[in-house]
Design brief:
The chain has about 220 residues and is an alpha+beta fold. It contains 6 helices and 7 strands; from the N terminus they run ααααβββββββαα. It has a 4-stranded antiparallel β-sheet, with no helix packed on it. It has a 3-stranded antiparallel β-sheet with strand order 1-2-3, covered by helices on one side. Strand 5 and strand 6 form a beta hairpin.
Length: about 220
C-alpha cells in the first residue's frame, strides 16, 4: 500500500501506456479517452485532464449526495495522499454541520466495500452505495447493555430500482426540455455549485493542482 503512495496510480499508468502506444485494456475499454489523449504529446502534463476527471468524479459521487441531503457544510477539513506525480491518491474529508458532522472517504488506489451510514439517535441507516442507492437498511438503536444485549434487527426500507439507473437521469432531462425549464428541482444549480466549491476547497487543502489552474 505504501508503494502506491510514491508512484503512479493504476489509472495513470494505463493512460501513460495508452498514450505511448502500448497495448493495454485501458485502450480497449476507454476509446473516447484514448482518442482525446492521442491529440497531445506523450509528455507531461498529458495526463492532467484525466487526473482532474478522476478526482472530480470520485469527489462528486460522495460529496454531491451529502450536499443534496444536508446542504452546505459550515467547515471542511481534508487529509489525503498525493502521489509523486502530483495527482491525488486517496483522501478523507470531514464536514461540520450545525449539530452533526459527516465524513467522506474516496480513493483511486484501492476499492472499498463499506456501505454508507447515516447515524441517528434512534438508529442507523445503511446505504449500499451512496451515489447509486440500491439497498437501504434501518438498524434501530439497541438498549444499552454494555455490548451484551441482542443485536439490532435489520429492517429493509429501500425500494428496488425498476429501471436502469441512467433511465431516471435521462427522463429528468427529457421532462426539463419538454417543459422549457432550465433547472431541475432534483439536481439544482445550487447543489452543483456548492459541490464544486467544496471540491475546489479540498484540492487547495491537499495541494492538488493542474496546469489549467495557472492559466490567465
Amino acid at each position: 500500500m505504501m508503494n502506491c503512495c510514491c508512484c503512479e496510480s493504476q489509472q495513470e499508468a494505463w493512460i501513460r501506456e495508452a498514450a505511448e502506444g502500448k497495448p493495454n485494456r485501458f485502450r480497449k475499454d476507454n476509446p473516447r479517452v484514448i482518442d482525446m489523449l492521442e491529440s497531445f504529446d506523450c509528455t507531461p502534463p498529458y495526463v492532467d485532464i484525466e487526473r482532474a476527471r478522476y478526482f472530480t468524479e470520485s469527489m462528486k459521487q460522495t460529496v454531491y449526495p451529502m450536499v443534496a441531503l444536508f446542504g452546505r457544510p459550515l467547515e471542511v477539513e481534508a487529509q489525503g495522499i498525493v502521489l509523486s506525480s502530483g495527482a491525488d491518491g486517496q483522501g478523507a474529508v470531514n464536514f461540520r454541520y450545525e449539530g452533526m458532522n459527516a465524513t467522506v472517504l474516496y480513493s483511486k488506489i484501492a476499492n472499498s466495500s463499506l456501505p454508507s451510514e447515516i447515524q441517528g439517535e434512534e438508529g442507523n441507516l445503511l446505504l449500499d452505495a451512496i451515489h447509486t442507492i440500491r439497498d437501504v437498511a434501518y438498524l434501530p438503536r439497541p438498549a444499552a447493555a454494555s455490548g451484551r444485549g441482542d443485536a439490532p434487527v435489520r429492517h429493509s426500507v429501500g425500494l428496488p430500482l425498476e429501471k436502469d439507473t441512467y433511465y431516471y437521469e435521462v427522463a429528468e432531462f427529457i421532462d426539463l426540455i419538454e417543459q422549457g425549464r432550465i433547472e431541475s428541482t432534483v439536481n439544482s444549480h445550487e447543489n452543483s455549485l456548492v459541490t464544486m466549491e467544496i471540491i475546489d476547497q479540498v484540492r487547495r487543502q491537499l495541494g492538488v493542482s493542474y496546469p489549467a489552474d495557472r492559466l490567465p
